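User: Batch of two.

Assistant: Item 1 of 2:
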Amino acid sequence: MPRSISMLLFPVIATGAIAASPNPMAIETGADLYDRCKPAVEIIQGAAIGTDERVLNTAACFSYITGFRDGGSFSAGFIAAKRKSGPVTEKDVIDGSAFCWKAGYDNGTVATSVINFLDRNPRRRKQPAGLVLMLVLRTEAPCP
């Protein structure tokens, strides 16, 4: 294989190897979301930052929430663009959204809402993390 092709394929091969290995920080279920967000909420409430694991869990929690929010906004904008001709406005995105991020609403607030929701609904911990987060956001941040 020519060197240039092998250099181009290296990232693809390396990514496949990484994706095939189990990721201890992965968030797939409500239980995973709970485990990653619980330390974040404790830190917000004044607990010591503590171990590297607590910091990594907090980062994983906040990253998941941010990705979910951004993905939801992108999807709503994409759907709005398909429905109309011309530029997509902020109102179009809001009209197509399943939830609306409120002013002053941050990852810590969402993480706290997730923990409270899962404490009240422990059976939801077996469900997909995206569904749990959607249920929380639809309740906590509905669109007008």
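Item 2 of 2:
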Amino acid sequence: MLPIKKFTDFIEQNRLFNRDDAVLAAVSGGMDSVLMVHLLKAAGYKFGIAHCNFQLRGDESLADQAFCKALANQNNVPFYTINFDTQLHASQNKISIQMAARQLRYDWFEQLRQQHQYNAIALAHHQNDAIETILLNLVRGTGIAGLHGILPQNGLLVRPLLCLTRDEIEKLINDYQTKLKAAQDKEKTLSEANKEAVTKELIAAQTELQGLGKKIEETRAQAAKDISAKQNEMLTPLQKKVREAIFAVAKEKNLSYVFDTAAQESNNLLYTDGSEDITATVKTKLGATATAAKPAGKTK
């Protein structure tokens, strides 16, 4: 279970932001920032996700970027991302890669905050980060001033995860992933059961349609026979010979055909699907000697 009350109490006690404020969540794709997203969503805060691609880890950087976009879509919140040439910025400003990445991301976060009117920028530092900072400050000899470590709030930068330790975050993420996998497995089982039921319905419907299709084909074939018989009754002896010749040539050439009795009077004997002119071939088969007139038109 997510520690929603502990999370919201820490925010309220440290006055990080109000319930109706809009928060820009800085999300790297690591478990700390991912947990922060889930807590913001579960607690009902209005927020957007910002992700920086520093282009320092090749395909891994692209994978993190795609993951954060999917996370935003999953939670139905705005998503912002940018690709930085971190090495170039470090070289041009003669600073370390770490410092270059820090400058680039904080400058961009502030631009987004102003542009989209967010009230705060949420960072996913936890208690262990704060302790490590204190120890590092002591080593550097910063004195008492360095003992505060990482503060919950620094201007509009807020750190709502300082209420949790790294171990707590890891356990929460592992528990969440376990429950998510169980839910996905259950959904898959239900999906397969539904799929099987739908498949049976489809097979039954297909069988019924096949039976109906067979009946339609039988009816169509019988109708074609009746129409052909009626046409033969209406043909003159010459037209019958022409038709027989067309049938024979079309069969030899593997062509479909259309017999047009009106065309016989002008010796237009092009009765195919339009792919080949068989007029001359048919006339030869009929022993015709008349010059073929221009075809009346192809029938497709």
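Residues 55 and 233 are 83 Å apart (CA to CA).
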